[in-house]
TrEMBL record:
Signal peptide (residue range): none
Keywords: DNA-binding, Transcription, Transcription regulation
InterPro entries: HTH_LacI, LacI/GalR-like_sensor, Lambda_DNA-bd_dom_sf, Peripla_BP_I
Molecular function GO labels: DNA-binding transcription factor activity; transcription cis-regulatory region binding
Provenance organism: Paraburkholderia acidicola
Domain HTH lacI-type: from-to ranges: 34-88
Protein name: LacI family transcriptional regulator
Pfam families attached to this UniProt entry: LacI, Peripla_BP_3
Length: 377
């Protein structure tokens, strides 16, 4: 080993730029980062005092805190999160698992959850399961090792989430769960579909179709809400399956719906993305919207307002849903038990993609919360 070093030095000495001492640039050693002991010495306090100040577990006199702050800034000290978590047992991080971050519904959920997390001094760690059920469990299990609690949106059946409880972390789920005592949040999908269907019935539509996504825990509730409203008027809807909650699903289904023997005059889609894809393909096939068919969805994604025609939808209050989920998880971390289901109320957003087909005004009574069996999911 020594011979290799000597050989390298000899070669360096023969290089033109190294013929004089002033041309040799020696590497400098990287300065060691400041430690908590350095801060304690500079501020004239104990290491324990610095630790308590940094972790926010105790207040001190203004003079002591001023010295601590000045010493920390002067030394550029940063606490070690791993060491802190080993001492306190807390990571000050919360994990959020979403089904598809490209879907604006989930993007808005993340925005709302992150806002509340920051307000309470937590960092949000995100996992995107990409609508893949086989990935959900390993990704969520890995995330659980790095956080104090979890917020989860999942396609896993309600009766198959025992393994989540076995993670021994506080957890909040999107959608109600009747099988396990888990805090849950969601928007009332039954009421959302009932409201939207009633709006279309009041506009004079009589031939309905629904383009859904059967893997979703919300899909059945939306079908039930729609069918309940239609039954009150002696109407039924043709049901179609989109297979994915994406614009491509709407595009693929469009020709079979629009070119079939009984073309509907109103289409309700599982979400706005499917509706937007359907509208794009319908125009490509030569249909006029909404003259030939009214189209509506759920979620109130931001760009639905800017398509032509602007999309009628139901606002599921995604950001508030994220905020509510984070508040419930923070309460759980504080030892406050709330294992019930907390639904938000949906809001109808009527735009130009739906058109009035009846000359007479609305004759149905004002909307009240419909009676239904079980909680919406």
């Amino acid at each position: 080993m020594l011979s290799v070093v000597v050989s390298a030095v000899n070669k360096l000495q023969r290089l033109p730029f190294a013929t004089s001492e002033e041309n040799v640039i020696l590497p400098t050693m990287k300065r060691t980062s400041s430690t908590i002991r350095d801060v304690a010495a500079a501020a004239g306090v104990s290491v324990a005092t610095v630790s308590k100040y940094m972790n926010g577990v105790q207040r001190f006199s203004p003079a002591v805190e001023a010295r601590l702050k000045a010493s920390i800034e002067q030394l550029g000290y940063r606490s070690n999160p791993l060491a802190r978590s080993m001492i306190t047992g807390e990571t000050r991080a919360i994990g959020l698992a979403v089904l598809d971050i490209r879907n604006p519904h989930f993007t808005n959920i993340v925005k709302g959850a992150n806002r509340v997390a920051i307000e309470h001094g937590y960092t949000l760690l995100l996992v995107d399961t990409e609508e893949n059920q086989t990935r959900e469990r390993p990704l969520i299990e890995a995330l659980a090792q790095r956080v104090d609690g979890l917020i989860v949106s999942s396609r896993i059946p309600d009766d198959s989430v025992q393994w989540m409880l076995d993670l021994h972390k506080p957890i909040v789920l999107f959608g109600s769960n009747r099988h396990f005592p888990i805090p849950c949040v969601g928007t009332d999908s039954y009421l959302a579909a009932y409201m939207l269907t009633r709006h279309l019935v009041n506009q004079g539509h009589r031939r309905f179709a629904y383009l859904g996504f059967g893997q979703s825990r919300w899909n059945d509730e939306r079908i039930r809400g729609m069918q309940s409203c239609l039954a009150e008027h002696g109407l039924i809807a043709a049901l179609y399956e989109g297979h994915t909650p994406s614009p491509q699903a709407g595009e693929r289904a469009c020709s079979s719906i629009m070119l079939g023997p009984e073309r509907p005059d109103a289409l309700i889609c599982y979400n706005d993305l499917i509706a937007l894809g359907f509208m794009k393909e319908a125009r490509a096939l030569g249909f006029a919207l909404p003259e030939d068919i009214s189209v509506a969805g759920f979620d109130n994604v931001p760009y639905g307002e800017y398509t032509s025609p602007a999309l009628t939808t139901v606002d599921l209050q995604s950001e508030k849903l994220g905020e509510l989920a984070m508040h419930k998880l923070i309460d759980a971390l504080a030892g406050k038990s709330d294992v019930g289901y907390s639904p938000l109320e949906p809001r109808l957003v009527a735009r130009d993609s739906t058109i009035r087909r009846a000359a007479s005004g609305d004759t149905t009574p004002a909307l009240t919360t419909p009676t239904r069996n079980g909680d919406s999911r």
